[in-house]
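User: Before I run my own analysis I want an independent prediction to cross-check against. Here's the chain; please return only the structure tokens and, at the end, one sentence I can use as a sanity check.
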Amino acid sequence: MKKIALSLSVACALASAAASANPGAPTLDPALAQQLQSLAAEAANAALAAGSPPVRVEVELGQLDARLQLAPCQQIQPYLPAGTRPLGRSRIGLRCLQGPTKWNVYLPITVKLFGQALVATCSLPTGSVIEARHLMLAEVDLAASPEPAYTTLAAPLGRTLARPLAAGDTLRRGDLKLRQYFQAGDLVRIVAVGNGYAVSAEGQALNNGLEGQPVRVRTESGRILSGLPAGERRVEIPL
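Assistant: Structure tokens:
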């Protein structure tokens, strides 16, 4: 695969990929190049949401299926298929808008977003309790997994590994065991959080309170509510 910077050159590369299956296809016009730049911005925004801004962006372009026999086309439009995650291994749609035969094909791509995140300094088996000496910051591909990578020591410190890490592996959310804040049957504090206010009451947990997983609680009046564990014997319910 060919590596390129995610910029206007992506448009040219996509045009070249289409032309390899369709020698008569022209290069993309500036409007289509701008569309691809918008897709690049979307991918960068997703990286920011993952917790760390990318410092370097690369795209690896795949190849169209060699068995394709595409009719000549005077205008090819690239687009992001609905529901496609524009990070990691993905695909870009290419469709012919002007030609004797309309066609639509998909070009595989890999979008890499490099930024600083925590990696293992040594091999760590399942069950290891994370210490500061186990991790260091390094440049990694934030888009290599949909799971967010940890960028500071505060969150993973003292947590237990749910699966082994090799030296150099990026520490991601799914690598750590879920914290359990309470058990089914425990009395918990129910906090209903609204815009600028919070109301709390006591209730009983109906299932174990695992980090990030919905939990059902019964209020003193017998009403059943659903919320998220937010700390030791604490359940938050957004209003």
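Sanity check: The helical segments are 8-21, 30-49.
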